Amino acid sequence: MLERTLIIIKPDAIKRELIGEILLRFENAGLHVLAMKMVQVSKRDAEKFYAEHAGKSFFEKLTTLLSSTPIIPVVLSGENAIAHVRKIMGATNPVDAEEGTIRHDLALDGTQNSVHGSDSPDSAAREIAFFFNTLEIFENREG
Ligand code: CMP
Protein backbone atom coordinates (compact mmCIF):
# COMPACT_ATOMS: atom_id res chain seq x y z
CA MET A 1 0.00 0.00 0.00
CA LEU A 2 1.36 3.40 -0.99
CA GLU A 3 1.64 5.49 2.17
CA ARG A 4 2.98 8.78 3.44
CA THR A 5 4.71 9.28 6.74
CA LEU A 6 6.36 12.11 8.63
CA ILE A 7 9.88 11.97 9.92
CA ILE A 8 11.68 14.63 11.92
CA ILE A 9 15.43 15.03 11.95
CA LYS A 10 15.77 15.90 15.63
CA PRO A 11 18.07 18.43 17.37
CA ASP A 12 20.78 15.98 18.40
CA ALA A 13 21.23 14.98 14.74
CA ILE A 14 21.07 18.56 13.44
CA LYS A 15 23.77 19.61 15.94
CA ARG A 16 26.05 16.78 14.77
CA GLU A 17 25.63 17.61 11.05
CA LEU A 18 23.79 14.36 10.31
CA ILE A 19 21.05 15.78 8.04
CA GLY A 20 22.55 14.39 4.82
CA GLU A 21 23.41 11.04 6.38
CA ILE A 22 19.84 10.53 7.59
CA LEU A 23 18.15 11.62 4.37
CA LEU A 24 20.51 9.41 2.36
CA ARG A 25 19.46 6.34 4.31
CA PHE A 26 15.78 6.92 3.52
CA GLU A 27 16.44 7.79 -0.13
CA ASN A 28 18.68 4.75 -0.58
CA ALA A 29 15.85 2.61 0.80
CA GLY A 30 13.56 3.83 -2.01
CA LEU A 31 11.51 6.40 -0.10
CA HIS A 32 10.62 9.64 -1.87
CA VAL A 33 10.78 13.11 -0.29
CA LEU A 34 7.47 14.91 -0.93
CA ALA A 35 8.06 17.87 1.42
CA MET A 36 10.79 19.20 3.68
CA LYS A 37 11.59 22.34 5.69
CA MET A 38 13.73 23.61 8.57
CA VAL A 39 11.72 25.09 11.45
CA GLN A 40 12.08 25.77 15.15
CA VAL A 41 9.01 24.93 17.22
CA SER A 42 8.05 26.57 20.51
CA LYS A 43 7.89 24.53 23.70
CA ARG A 44 4.10 24.80 23.50
CA ASP A 45 4.07 23.44 19.92
CA ALA A 46 6.40 20.60 20.93
CA GLU A 47 3.93 19.72 23.72
CA LYS A 48 1.09 19.75 21.19
CA PHE A 49 3.02 17.57 18.73
CA TYR A 50 3.83 14.99 21.41
CA ALA A 51 0.47 15.31 23.24
CA GLU A 52 0.05 11.51 23.39
CA HIS A 53 3.10 11.38 25.70
CA ALA A 54 1.84 14.09 28.10
CA GLY A 55 2.27 12.95 31.69
CA LYS A 56 5.06 10.47 30.95
CA SER A 57 8.33 10.75 32.85
CA PHE A 58 10.30 11.84 29.77
CA PHE A 59 7.75 14.40 28.46
CA GLU A 60 9.50 17.51 29.82
CA LYS A 61 12.91 16.43 28.54
CA LEU A 62 11.47 15.40 25.16
CA THR A 63 9.59 18.66 24.52
CA THR A 64 12.47 20.83 25.79
CA LEU A 65 14.82 19.02 23.41
CA LEU A 66 12.51 19.19 20.40
CA SER A 67 12.19 22.96 20.80
CA SER A 68 15.90 23.57 21.51
CA THR A 69 17.19 24.03 17.93
CA PRO A 70 15.75 24.03 14.41
CA ILE A 71 14.46 20.65 13.27
CA ILE A 72 13.70 19.21 9.83
CA PRO A 73 10.28 17.64 9.29
CA VAL A 74 10.09 15.62 6.07
CA VAL A 75 7.16 13.90 4.34
CA LEU A 76 8.24 10.57 2.86
CA SER A 77 6.26 8.39 0.48
CA GLY A 78 6.57 4.76 -0.52
CA GLU A 79 5.11 1.25 -0.26
CA ASN A 80 4.20 0.64 3.42
CA ALA A 81 6.18 3.78 4.22
CA ILE A 82 5.16 3.92 7.90
CA ALA A 83 6.49 0.46 8.81
CA HIS A 84 9.40 0.73 6.35
CA VAL A 85 10.59 3.98 7.93
CA ARG A 86 10.26 2.55 11.44
CA LYS A 87 12.42 -0.41 10.41
CA ILE A 88 15.10 1.90 8.99
CA MET A 89 15.00 4.01 12.20
CA GLY A 90 15.23 1.05 14.60
CA ALA A 91 13.95 0.81 18.17
CA THR A 92 13.37 4.00 20.18
CA ASN A 93 16.39 3.43 22.40
CA PRO A 94 19.70 2.91 20.51
CA VAL A 95 20.74 0.12 22.91
CA ASP A 96 17.74 -1.90 21.70
CA ALA A 97 18.07 -0.97 18.02
CA GLU A 98 19.36 -3.42 15.42
CA GLU A 99 22.75 -2.86 13.86
CA GLY A 100 22.53 -0.83 10.67
CA THR A 101 19.49 1.18 11.80
CA ILE A 102 19.70 4.95 12.17
CA ARG A 103 19.19 4.87 15.91
CA HIS A 104 21.71 2.07 16.50
CA ASP A 105 24.33 3.82 14.39
CA LEU A 106 23.70 7.48 15.23
CA ALA A 107 21.43 8.08 18.26
CA LEU A 108 22.82 9.23 21.60
CA ASP A 109 20.18 7.79 23.96
CA GLY A 110 16.45 7.02 24.29
CA THR A 111 15.41 10.67 24.09
CA GLN A 112 18.12 12.09 21.83
CA ASN A 113 17.39 9.43 19.24
CA SER A 114 18.11 11.48 16.09
CA VAL A 115 14.89 10.85 14.22
CA HIS A 116 11.15 10.63 14.78
CA GLY A 117 8.76 8.66 12.56
CA SER A 118 4.95 8.41 12.62
CA ASP A 119 3.68 5.18 14.19
CA SER A 120 0.29 4.75 12.44
CA PRO A 121 -1.74 6.08 9.49
CA ASP A 122 -3.72 8.33 11.87
CA SER A 123 -0.62 9.82 13.45
CA ALA A 124 1.02 10.22 10.02
CA ALA A 125 -1.97 12.26 8.80
CA ARG A 126 -2.00 14.39 11.96
CA GLU A 127 1.76 14.90 12.01
CA ILE A 128 2.01 15.77 8.29
CA ALA A 129 -0.77 18.37 8.72
CA PHE A 130 1.00 19.73 11.80
CA PHE A 131 3.95 20.90 9.67
CA PHE A 132 2.76 21.19 6.06
CA ASN A 133 -0.15 22.56 4.08
CA THR A 134 -1.24 20.86 0.84
CA LEU A 135 0.66 23.35 -1.36
CA GLU A 136 3.92 22.33 0.31
CA ILE A 137 3.51 18.62 -0.46
CA PHE A 138 4.67 17.59 -3.94
CA GLU A 139 2.34 14.75 -4.89
CA ASN A 140 3.96 14.27 -8.29
CA ARG A 141 7.04 12.89 -6.49
CA GLU A 142 4.95 10.11 -4.93
CA GLY A 143 5.92 6.57 -5.76
P1 CMP B 1 9.94 9.62 18.96
O1 CMP B 1 9.88 8.54 17.93
O2 CMP B 1 10.17 11.01 18.52
O3 CMP B 1 8.58 9.56 19.80
C1 CMP B 1 8.50 9.86 21.15
C2 CMP B 1 9.82 10.17 21.75
O4 CMP B 1 9.86 10.14 23.15
C3 CMP B 1 10.83 9.14 21.32
O5 CMP B 1 11.13 9.24 19.97
C4 CMP B 1 11.96 9.46 22.28
O6 CMP B 1 12.69 10.60 21.88
C5 CMP B 1 11.18 9.79 23.53
N1 CMP B 1 11.08 8.62 24.43
C6 CMP B 1 10.28 7.55 24.26
N2 CMP B 1 10.43 6.67 25.28
C7 CMP B 1 11.35 7.22 26.10
C8 CMP B 1 11.92 6.80 27.33
N3 CMP B 1 11.57 5.65 27.92
N4 CMP B 1 12.82 7.60 27.91
C9 CMP B 1 13.15 8.77 27.33
N5 CMP B 1 12.64 9.24 26.17
C10 CMP B 1 11.75 8.46 25.55
Features:
143 residues, alpha+beta, Alpha-Beta Plaits, four-stranded antiparallel beta sheet, globular, binds adenosine-3',5'-cyclic-monophosphate
The CATH superfamily is known as Nucleoside diphosphate kinase-like domain
Largest sheet: 4 strands, antiparallel
Helicity, in percent?
25-40%
CATH architecture descriptor: 2-Layer Sandwich
CATH topology: Alpha-Beta Plaits
Ligand species:
adenosine-3',5'-cyclic-monophosphate
Record the strand order, biggest sheet: 2-3-1-4
In total, the number of domains comes to 1
Q: What is the typical, i.e. mean, pLDDT?
A: 97
With helices defined by DSSP (H or I, 4 residues minimum), what is the helix count?
7
Specify the structural class: alpha+beta
The value of Rg in angstroms is 14 Å
Proportion of beta-strand residues:
15-25%
Report the count of strand segments. 4
Cα end-to-end separation: 11 Å
Characterize the overall form.
globular
CATH class value = Alpha Beta
- The secondary-structure element order is EHHEHHEHHEH
Please mark out the parts with pLDDT under 50 across 5 or more consecutive residues, or reply none.
Answer: none
Describe this structure in words.
The chain is an alpha+beta fold and 143 residues long. The chain has one domain: Alpha-Beta Plaits (2-Layer Sandwich). Helix content is 38%, strand content 17%. The chain has seven helices and four strands. The longest helix is centred in the last third of the chain and has 11 residues. The chain is globular and about 40 Å long. The termini are close together.
